[in-house]
C-alpha cells in the first residue's frame, strides 16, 4: 500500500495535465476519467471515476466544508450516467477507503459502474 502525496499521486497528475486519461468532464472542482476497455479494474461496460482536482486522500479526510465538492462529484456522476445511457437501468456509485476497503489510489474518487446487471455490493474474502 502506498500513501501517495499530491506530488506522486496519479489523479493529481491527471488533474494537472490530463496526461494519459480519457477525460469525460472537467470543471474547477472535479474531473471525470473513463476507465478504458482492457483495464484490469474495469467492472462494467460503463466505468468511470469522478475525482476532486484538490488532493483529498480519502473519505476520512473530508470535512463539513467539503459539502460542495461532494455534491459536485455526485451530480457529475449522475449527469454522465444519463449521457452514457445507464441512468434508467441503474448504476453503482462507490468510493473505497483504506486497505480493507480496497483503496489502491490514495486520492478520493467516486466510481460509476453500469451497463450490465451488477452482483452483490460487497464481497469479501472469508478465509
- The strand order across the widest sheet is 1-2-3-5-4
Specify the biggest β-sheet. Answer: 5 strands, antiparallel
Low-confidence stretches: none
Number of strands: 5
Report how far apart the termini are: 21 Å
CATH architecture: 2-Layer Sandwich
Strand content: 15-25%
What's the helix count?
A: 2
**Shape, please?**
globular
Q: How much is the average pLDDT?
A: 88
Element order: H for helix, E for strand? HEEEHEE
Q: What's the alpha carbon Rg, rounded to whole Å?
A: 14 Å
Secondary structure class reads: alpha+beta
The CATH class assignment is: Alpha Beta
**Number of separate domains:** 1
Q: What is the CATH fold-level name?
A: HIT family, subunit A
Q: What is the assigned CATH homologous superfamily?
A: HIT-like
Name the helicity range.
Answer: 10-25%
Give the key terms.
single chain, 127 residues, alpha+beta, HIT family, subunit A, five-stranded antiparallel β-sheet, 20% helix
Account of the protein in words:
The chain has 127 residues and is α+β, with helices and mostly antiparallel strands. The chain has one domain (6-114): HIT family, subunit A, CATH 3.30.428. 20% of the residues lie in helices and 20% in strands. It has helices spanning 10-17, 67-83; strands spanning 22-26, 30-34, 46-52, 91-94, 110-114. The chain has a five-stranded antiparallel β-sheet, with helices on one face. It is globular. The two termini are 21 Å apart. The relative contact order is 0.21. The mean pLDDT is 88.
